[in-house]
Description:
Blueprint: H1 6-43, H2 53-75, H3 82-103
Amino acid sequence: MRPVRAYQIEKFTMTKKQLALGSFGIIWLLTLALGYHLYASISAQGVPDYPNRAQFRLYILFPCLFVLGNGVLAIYSKKIGAAGAVIAALAQLAALLAFFIVGAGGV
């Protein structure tokens, strides 16, 4: 068995970080598409003052910020450590759960 060199381990962990951040990026892109569809269907009803700014922020801006944040994290994934990637993944998981609870109308 050949010894494993440090740069090989580092390269492998970077790939796992990029894969994790990429998967969260895809999930947030799908969430953004869902939010756009929900916002567009609210607009199509033609009710005055509906949709409001809060719905725009929730359905469009909130997922868009996470898509952009994932892009930045994926670009700089070599500079953040494994702990930073785990913290980012846990924060996104909590935000995704909160998004679906609030977007669905509560618990």
